[in-house]
Design a protein that fits this description.
Largest sheet of chain A: 5 strands, mixed
Oligomer: heterodimer
Strand content of chain B: over 45%
Helix content of chain A: under 10%
Strand content of chain A: 35-45%
Number of strands of chain B: 11
Strand order of the largest sheet of chain A: 1-9-8-3-4
Structural class of chain B: mainly beta
Order of helices and strands of chain B: EEEEEEEEEEE
Shape of chain A: globular
Chain lengths: 111, 116
């Protein structure tokens, strides 16, 4: 099974960009890379996903390495509300896409 | 914006009792899921449901668990005889489905189950 590796925690200052890394060296050709986040006392929240090309949406950007063995979630201007656990997930868990969560990266944002 | 809702927000039950956790997925979604998160631990997949049947289930989802979509809107998780170790936050999620593994899931706020 393909696995992901993320730092346990990261810190950022408010209004500065944040780059959250994820390594997935055993990714298969059909695995999509998903990012979810979980704010304190809430359910997980979809952030973004991609396959090969970089992706942008209103919440974040996803930069995928050319060899697909790593990716980076970019929050362009961190706010206090972005303090959460961020999960990088490869959707390999079954034909219906059940998500397999790891421990994620706990992002702290300082004012 | 449509959202997944769950009731109750907190359920306290005695060991051995049956509980039913309820979820209303987003109306045009076709894929439904239950996950759980024991306090301080990872979110764990329990079961996925599509076309009125279970698609996938994890090792956690044993004979004590069942899921049902009794009508066009509700999606329920039943635990027949609760154990202390079932105490956790239970999250319902739904998704539209799509090609291969490319779709996103929307999670509800969770039901905190406390078994005493």
């Amino acid at each position: 099974d393909a696995k992901t590796t993320q730092p346990n925690s990261m810190e950022s200052n408010e209004e500065e960009p944040v780059h959250l890394p994820c390594n997935h060296s055993t990714i298969s050709g059909t695995d999509y890379i998903h990012w979810y986040r979980q704010l304190p006392s809430q359910g997980p929240e979809y952030v973004i996903h991609g396959l090969t090309s970089n992706v942008n949406n209103r919440m974040a950007s996803l930069a995928i390495a050319e060899d697909r063995k790593s990716s980076t979630l970019i929050l362009h201007r961190a706010t206090l509300r972005d303090a959460a656990v961020y999960y990088c997930i490869l959707n390999y868990g079954g034909s219906q896409g059940n998500l397999i969560f790891g421990k994620g990266t706990k992002l702290s944002v300082k004012p | 914006e449509p959202e997944v809702t769950q009731t109750p927000s907190h359920q306290v039950t005695q060991m051995g009792q049956e509980v039913i956790l309820r979820c209303v997925p987003i109306s045009n979604h076709l894929y439904f899921y239950w996950y759980r998160q024991i306090l301080g631990q990872k979110v764990e997949f329990l079961v996925s449901f599509y076309n009125n049947e279970i698609s996938e289930k994890s090792e956690i989802f044993d004979d004590q668990f069942s899921v049902e979509r009794p009508d066009g809107s509700n999606f329920t998780l039943k635990i027949r005889s609760t154990k202390l170790e079932d105490s956790a936050m239970y999250f319902c999620a739904s998704g539209t489905g799509g090609w291969a593994r490319s779709y996103e899931q929307y999670f509800g706020p969770g039901t905190r189950l406390t078994v005493t």
